[in-house]
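User: quick one, fold this
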Amino acid sequence: MSSSISAHAVAKLIIAGEHAVVYRRPALAVPIPDITAIVQIAAAPHGHGCWLEAPDLDQRGRVGIDAHPLIDLITDLLTAWHLPTPDVTVTIHSTIPIASGMGSGAAVATALVRAFAAWCDKSLTREDLGAFVYRSEQRLHGTPSGIDNTVIAYDQPISFCRQAPRADGTAQPPRIVPLAIGAPMTLVIADSGERSPTHLAVDGVRQRREQATAHYDALFDAIGAVTLVAEQALAAGDAALLGAACRQNHTLLQQIGVSIPTLDALVAAALKAGAYGAKLSGAGVGGVMFAVCPPDQGDIIRQALIGAGAVKAFITQLQPYQSVE
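Assistant:
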């Protein structure tokens, strides 16, 4: 066995459908390979135990002693594989903004599972990987949608939709379909600098829906319809149509109460600078937004977003992807 081994996982971006996806409408998500989480496992002397070091997250702990969702995930893996606790140091580095809607927790968990599978010489299907990461997401978020662990574990663009229970009440797995992208598309992603844990935003929407169910269900239906337009735009490689769908989606997210002035100002700045469209991405109430841009306007729009208060903004491209069910 090597004295050290590493594995990585990519960030994700929800293109359309956030929040409505919790209520069985579709959502579209893509991996963002420019931003990653990396986990390294290094051998340690006998008796050292298994230590987790996450300087970017300001976390440190020992398996079997300290309580932390990632330590619990390591325990899950060792238990499932019937292995003793190894003498290793597990170091995590991530460039994914925390509590920003880009799947930081799922990416770190995915990289951690991949690294331990390699270290322990265990084969790992993507379904197994997704299940381990989903359990970790439950510890972090309570009732996650399932998008983060799926798109990051599958490492491909997907359409994701929760399914209603069967007639006998048993749960059905979500419908996961690879998402076609017909041509390269330029995006600029900007971090608002404001953090909001996913579960707080999701709980807020749930509470508001309980007070006005018909109104919120109508908004979710509208988000679902716009998401289908976005899916068609991606498949056709039509950035202008995707931008129009994103503008509509952002307006609907404002109406369900998950945007904030900072995000609205960034969206407005992107549109003023020439973006086809822009919207918040993820749970909202902080986090990130993105703009769909003409290929030659990316840097102009990135600079406009920095000027409008984004703490960080970068250009990325969605690459063509052929969907084969």
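User: anything notable?
Assistant: The chain has a mean pLDDT of 92.
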